[in-house]
Design brief:
4-stranded mixed β-sheet, Rossmann fold, 25% helix, single chain, alpha/beta, globular, 3-stranded antiparallel β-sheet, 7 strands
């Protein structure tokens, strides 16, 4: 599960994916387990939920380069694109509304575009979190 965003701009609406992962880590009681993984240039935490092993990942790069971290982690942790869930902001959804999207285009989202390019696939599942338009 990868939270897209701008690492240095946490708390902004475009980094809502990272905020969701922070909340998920607290709920799964692994919030103290975040560690920097230099191999993929990301903060990672391992968790278990309903018998599934999860790798939570927050890239330490700008949004437009998030895919490089996610592709590196996929290689390191032996994941294929279908195993990856992206959590990201969506300008076209009302604030706080969420939707799941199974694969497809980036729909203009630079972080998702970066992931599609770096993974050479668009098969990742996305949790789109509405941030509304200014």
């Amino acid at each position: 599960v990868a939270g897209l965003g701008n690492y240095g701009l946490r708390g902004t609406r475009h980094s809502v994916g990272m905020g969701v992962l922070d909340r998920l880590a607290r709920q799964l009681e692994v919030a103290e387990g975040w560690r920097a993984d230099r191999r993929c240039c990301a903060d990672v935490a391992l968790a278990t939920a309903r018998g599934l092993e999860l790798l939570l990942l927050k890239p330490r790069r700008l949004m437009n380069l998030n895919g490089l971290s996610i592709a590196s982690a996929a290689e390191i942790y032996n994941l294929c694109p279908e195993d990856i869930y992206l959590v990201h902001d969506d300008l076209d959804k009302a604030l706080g509304k969420v939707a799941i999207k199974l694969g497809g285009s980036a729909r203009g989202h630079n972080g998702v575009r970066s992931c599609i390019s770096a993974l050479h696939s668009n098969e990742m599942t996305r949790l789109r979190v509405g941030i509304g338009r200014p």
